[in-house]
Structures are given as C-alpha cells and as structure tokens.
Amino acid sequence: MLLRLLLVICELLPRPVLKAQPSKPIEGSSVILTCEIQFLPQKSNVQFQFCFYRDSQLLASGCSSYPELQIPAIWKEDSGSYWCEVETETHSTTRSPRFQIYVQRIRISDVSLVTQPPGGWVVEGDKLVLICLADNGTGDITFFWYRGALGLNLETKTQRSLKAEYEIITMKESDAEQYYCAADNGYGPTLSGLVSITVRIPVSHPVLTLRTSEAQIVVGDVVELHCEALRGSPPILYQFYHEDVIMGNSSAPSRGGVSFNLSLTEDHSGNYSCEANNGHGAQRSEVVTLNITVPMENRIENLTSRILEGLLGTISLIIVTLLFCYWFKRKIGRCSGDPLRTFPNPVPQEPSYLNSSDPVQLQPIYENVNVVRGDEVYSLVYQIQQEQEPAAAEHLRTHGENKIPSDIYSRIRKANVVDVDYEDTM
Fold first, then answer.
1. Lowest mean pLDDT across 219-223, 243-247, 294-298
2. Which residues, at least 6 apart from 106, have a Cβ–Cβ distance to it below 8 Å?
C-alpha cells in the first residue's frame, strides 16, 4: 500500500526550475543558484536532495538538502548551461530545464606604469621595480613590459589582478632608457605612457694633481690644485684639504673636475687631498705632499724677525716685572708706617737781614744730614749767613750741647747752624 502511494507521489512531482541571481553576472562577482519546486504535494515529511550542474559537471561537493548554491566569484570561463536535479527518498529524480549563464567581462582601461624608487631616479647597482597598473578590467590579465621606443619586450605575466610587477635586480648605467607596459584581458592590449629612467652613478675616488710651471716650488709661486672624479653623475661638489683642514670648495656642473689656485708661503708645506660628492656618497683622494723651498734671504729675514720678536717679548716681560715690583714696594712702604723711613718736611724760616742799609734777602738752604748714631737720628736744618749771630750760636751751645754729641756739635758750629731739629727715635 505504501509503495503504491509513493509511486503516485512520484508521478505527481513536477519538474524543478533553476534560477540565477544575477542572471547576467559580471566577471568576478558572486552568483546564487536556486532550484525551485513550484507544486509540492501536501506531504510535509517528504525529503528531497538538490544537485546543481554546469554542462553535465556536478558543482560543489555534491547534492544537499538545501535548494540553493552560492558561487563566490564567477569568471568568463564559467559561462555555460546550468541545471538542477531533485532526488526523492525512493531515489527517483527529476531535472530542471537548462539555464544559460553568460558571464560578462569588463575591458581593461587606464593602464599606467609607476616606478620604485619613485620618480624614475635609481642609483647604479640598486634595484628598480616597474609596476603596471590597470584601473578597470576583469578576468585573467596579461601584462607586458617594454624598453625603449621600439618596444623591446622584457617580461610577460598573466594573472587575475589589476596590478603586476617586474624587477630589474641590478641597474647599470646602460639601463637608463624609456619604459612602458601593456595589459590585455582578451579585448586587445591597452598601453601605458612612457616613463624615463635615470641611472645615477656614485662618484669614484678623485685624483688630486698639483700643477706648477717650475720644477722646484719656492715661496711666492702659484700652484694649481686640480681634483677630478673619473666616474660620477654631475653635479659634483669638490672640497680641497690641507692637513685635513678645508681650504675651499667648488661645484662642477659637468664632468672634468675643478681647480684651486694657491699662492705659496712657508706655511703651505704639507699634505693635501680632495673630496668628491654628488649626493650618493663622498670619496676622498690619496694624499699628495707639497715641499716648498725657502730662499736663503727669506730664511735670514725670517730668522731676524723671529729674534726681534723674541727680544721684544723678553724686554716687555722685564718692564712689566719692574713696574710691578716698583708698585708693590711703594704699596708696602705706605702701609708699614716705619718712623725711620719717614722724615718731616722742613719748615721755612723768615730771612735775616744783618747790618745792611740795603739788605740782601738770603734764600734758606735745607739739607737733611741724616746723622745716625746708634738709635738716634738727627735732622739738621741750617742757613748760611754773611755774619753769624752770636746769640743764636750761644743759644745753640747752651741748649744743644747736652743732647748732641760733641763731634756732631762741632760740625754744626762750623757750618753756621742757626737751627737744629732733634728727633730721638728711642
């Protein structure tokens, strides 16, 4: 009875219908296939298996109980006839009509060539990467790289991408050229524009040459220092050194090197070198030694000049030392307050007029006799007169003989002393 019922159900099962969303997919997009059964019998417990095919090829991993199948990305070669099949529990099957899917491909447009490093500038020996880019296009794209305006093919690559790279591992000076690329996905190649590549050459070790018109170099001659790097992209900056001290620099906009003129003195003897730099590493030349001959008259003049300089320096030192000693001695004398070193200033006396109607004014004469005896110092002030005044002499004898020794007193009387200033330092 059950078998008969199943046979009736199978006879009543309609054919399924296959639908695609979208029905006209673009290459690279996803597509969903749906197998629909429009008139199912009123039997909820009936189980079905759904299978999807393209040109008799089973899709996915097999049949499933789910009536949909998603294709993540469909390509031009996936175009063809699609259909689905429904299988019942009794292994009876029914197939849908075939559905034609045509995958659309987008033509390539806007192809460009870019370089790494950017700008098309690369140093000799470094790597250059040529990147070919397409803004639009689908499917497998074939890329081509060309060198020169005549189009020498360097490389060809096919890949499912809008970007492809070609590398030149080690650039040479001869690789400085124009480059371009092309991309094709079946509609014909689309070309990029031309890109010029410049290969920069680092400088080599420069050569320093000393040029002079004389076989023997003497003081006063002019020597030309010429520095030149045989390889290197211009412009090149050259610097000249004397004993590792920079003397000057000059830039060469083209090849050929630069020169530096030097008027020689004795101090210019020594080692010379030069340096070249174009922004890709500096290089130094080998050292060149310059020996300068000094004429005999110049040697004598130099020796005399040095001797005079030495004497002037010595004399100046002596003068400074004496001035300092004098200043220091005076400063000590003012500060010590030693009474033995300080003498009172003499006090002038009134002039004397003796027995004359037309007296002549005599100028007082002062003299520090500085008579020292023991610890006593005598300061004598005397005046020569035409006549000795008896009273003064007597006064001197009476008041001074007790304090002044006899020999000193006798000297005072002979000198016609009229005044004595006695100072006892005890």
1. 294-298
2. 26, 27, 136, 137, 138
Distances in whole angstroms, Cα of residue 221 to Cα of each of 155, 210, 274, 401: 63, 12, 21, 92
Contacts for 105 with CB less than 8 Å, ≥ 6 apart: 26, 27, 76, 138, 139, 185, 186, 187
Q: How many CA atoms lie within 13 A of 211 on its CB side?
A: 11
Reported as half-sphere exposure (CB side, CA atoms, 13 A), residue 150 has a value of 1
In what helix (H) or strand (E) does residue 411 lie, and over which residues does it extend?
helix 406-414
Per-residue pLDDT tens digits for 22-42: 999 999 899 999 999 876 655
DSSP letters spanning 114-163: EEESGGGEEETTS-EEEEEEEEE--S-EEEEEEETTTTEEEEEEEESSSE
Whether the link from the prior residue into 206 is cis, omega within 30° of 0, is no
Tens digits of residue pLDDT in 48-105: 899 999 998 999 888 998 999 999 999 999 999 999 999 887 778 899 999 999 999 9
3-state secondary structure at position 335? helix
CB contact set of 104 (below 8 Å; sequence gap of 6+): 24, 25, 26, 27
Q: What is the pLDDT of residues 319-338, one digit of tens each?
A: 988 888 888 887 776 655 44
pTM here is 0.57
Q: Can you name the residues that pair with 180 across neighbouring β-strands?
A: 146
Query: Beta-carbon neighbour count of residue 200 at 10 Å?
Result: 17
Q: Which residues contact 403 (CB under 8 A, 6 or more apart)?
A: 422
Angstrom distance (rounded) from CA 119 to CA 128: 11
Distance of CA 305 to the CA centre of its chain: 44
Cβ-proximal residues to 164 (8 Å cutoff; 6+ apart), any chain: 131, 132, 141, 143, 157, 183
Q: Where are the beta strands (DSSP E) in 76-127?
A: 80-87, 93-95, 99-101, 109-116, 121-123
H helices of 288-371, in order, are 296-336
Cross-strand partners of 159: 141
Confidence at residue 406, expressed as pLDDT on a 0 to 100 scale: 57
Closest CA to 281 of 116, 125, 115, 120: 125
Q: Among 108-122, 316-330, 386-400, where is mean pLDDT lowest?
A: 386-400
The kind and range of the H/E element at 394 are helix 390-400
Query: Using DSSP, how many helices (H) and how many strands (E) does the chain show?
Result: 4, 29
Q: How many CB atoms lie within 10 A of CB 38?
A: 8
Residues 390 and 398: their CA atoms lie apart, in Å, by: 12
Residue with tokens 């100046």: 316
